Fold these 4 entries.
Entry 1:
Amino acid sequence: MAVSSITITLPTQPNTHKQQQCSFTLSSSPNATAISATHISPSTNYFIVKAKIRDSLKWRTRASSFISGFFTKEKDIQTLKEDLYDTIKPLDRGAQATPEDQDRVEQIARKFEALNKIKDPLKSNLLNGKWELMYTTSQSLLQTQRPKFLRPNGKIYQGINVDTLRAQNLETWPFFNQATANLVPLNSRKVAVKFDSFKIASLIPIKSRGSGRGQLEITYLDEELRISRGNRENLFILKMVDPLYRVPL
């Protein structure tokens, strides 16, 4: 930040001709610039000058508090991410989560939601791309009622493009199933999801007859992490893997 100095000549006492020079060093805030640009005569009232300087210091204090709060918030988010990743790492996307584990992840998710800066995620380009599912409570995805070898064991992805309002779910090993959907905005952070096509083993297309429907609300979003909630109170936590990915139309 640039610093400027000004020297002001003031009378020391009323009815005297002795003058005193006072020097002030100010940061180049809007207030400081105004002071240094103002013509100050020997008859300048000391208290007016003092008030202007106090205003400048208040501006600097507010700016300092804002910057300090910003970096504190960023530090809190980074600490939460480390806590989140450590918590969900052994949970097999949620398939191995106990009720206590679910409560712990839920508490962390709510802390993220309280710090969310993207209030209108459907208007943000941060939403675009391919996201990897890290954790969920959705049984339709986890399928814990099945033997492990009949569940999706590879990574699961979700692609979203806000400009075309298209979404895509992609399973990997062993089934490689896919589903694509249209997104219908309900507000600036919530969409209705209407699946229109499926692919078995990424090869066999099946047209949907409108049976696949749901809602999704994006409650936290940044460059690498997304938290969403479904209409059945399911929690989804995803990590960005490819911001350039495009969902087929």
Entry 2:
Amino acid sequence: MTPKLNTDLLAERMIISYNKCMTQLFIIHFLGSMEIFILTGMAYDRYVAICKPLHYAAIMSRQRCNTIILACWTGGFIHSASQFLLTIFLPFCGPNEIDHYVCNVYPLLKLACTDTSRIGLLVIVNSRLTALVIFVILMVSYFLILYTIRVYPAESHAKALSTCRFHITLVVLFFVPVLFVYIRPHVTFPVDKVFALLHAIIAPVFNPLIYRLRNWEMKALREMWCHLVIL
């Protein structure tokens, strides 16, 4: 999505072929839904680490981690394949211009020269259920974490919250635009492009930065740079 967007910004005519459009649709939903499932797996990891610290090594074994990763890939593929199959068989015989910078389901439904009300309903159910169920699971996991740490000493309480705040930041950055775009009925608004930019480009760009800031290598690097600046 990002290379094509950068290319279109420099081009006089913004064109994408049908095959590339369908490929972009599949990949965006595959990676986006996989990101949602990964955030869920990370929430489970944080829950076990904070609520059951003595059993963490036994519960989050290498086999369990591999199973979670495989489930994220499988869930992403199933969701993306369903969105892809609902769209690829639509007949496009009229206008061929979408009011978006990415091939997504809702803009493509507007171009189809057939009644898309049933397909739009299936897309809503698919995306809405995925987003809502995962969001509820994330909220429940953090409610359990907050409920557990309420009896912790102040230092342990602050450490537990520090462990979660980066994950919560990414959940907010990712889920707020996703819920806005996919929870409502299948209509499009101009602001959709802004929200698509947030969850498809901005949030992934911040991923490595946010998670690396806690690593001891990055902390050591920051201390070194501060020392050099003082010198």
Entry 3:
Amino acid sequence: MVEHICEVFRSPLWVFDIFEESLIEWIINLQPTIRYVFIEDGVITSIETLDRVLKNLKVTEHFYLGSTEIHDEEFEVTEPILSGFISIARSYWFTLPAILNGNNSIIRLYDSMLPHKDINTILKEWQRGLKLRNLEYLEIEHVMHRGIRDDDLEVLEDLNFTPNLENAGRPRKVQIHDERTYWLPHVPFVCDLVRDDGMIGSVSYNYRVFRFQVWRRQI
């Protein structure tokens, strides 16, 4: 029915909610490029299916992937997901190269297994200015929590940062697209990194959630 409507009105789909696995092949064949895709929990049951989604479905604005039924903890994805905004539940398989080599503007990872040394590498590469040029906001929720003090030391190791107890103009929201805004939680303390082009990256760590917000101070 949806395919018939699209054909009659010559109107492409701009958002698609995948709640069963059979719809994956259907949308790939009908319209492999789409603005918003949401794949619900439990739809992806194999590495092969996930690989087909990542290689054949181009999501330009927001790609959301719920929890998969893949239980191979050795499985990794090293290629970036080509979407402006990505949200991934149970993202243990999403690795450092997939982040560094992507052009994503917003990344939200849940139940991540990224070690803190990898987050440290992300911050260093962002500050050098050769990678992550489009990044506006990064949020990583870790599976394990070892204590804020230890995490801070490892994440910020060898970085030139300024502790900041005041907001000092930092935006409280991230614009996801024209019709949706993500309001950021209040954090009492951040560490600011400054890039050569004047962009500021504010780092915060609350319980087991790492946040990195990129912004520019208004004159």
Entry 4:
Amino acid sequence: MEKFLIPHSTKNSIPYKIEITSSNMMKGVSFLVTLAILALASSIASAYDPSPLQDFCVAINDIKSGVFVNGKFCKDPAMVSANDFFFSGLNIPGNTGNKVGSNVTLVNVDRLAGLNTLGISLARLDFAPYGLNPPHTHPRGTELLVVIEGTLLVGFVTSNPNKLFTKVLNKGDVFVFPIGLIHFQFNIGETAALAFAGLSSQNPGVITIANAVFGSVPPINPDVLIKAFQLDKNVVEYLQKAFAPN
């Protein structure tokens, strides 16, 4: 092991020498290299693409022909008022007189402009007795649900191998549905139910599975659905008619 003697003195002191070994020098070099790597990793980690705020945003070279951005254009701060951060109406029950017996009132950036860039939205969920919010996904948001009235059977399914996590929720209970996973809420009570949900996107989006698969425009080729769901052709045709948009 090599040793180095470095002259050292301070004002009004007797000169002396510091002994530094080669091993100590290597430790110092290793520390500096590690520090440099961490700094580089930190800069790379912060240089990521922004999360999408809509289904797609196709690039265009001619900005005069562009009509959308990833999100919304920002209002001049000098023109902003308290009303830009205000929404009224979530005290009003949604109409559950439909085939599934549920209604979702979503307050996203399209209804509350002040949500733009804040990464959050809110929804009111009303359920008739035995009403269902059918299996669906939010491609851009995690959902945090709290039951206000009634009893809900809720659950979500993971990616392959498709494990189901399910729970019966009562008044005051909270359940989280991870981003992008198929989930549902079903009122198993004989009375109406009410819940509120926060979502981690200003525009979380929703894909209702049955509607997307059997009610797309234009329709998915029946042969694809016959093979995918192992159903008879007549059943697939019936389902496509049942879910066809009005």
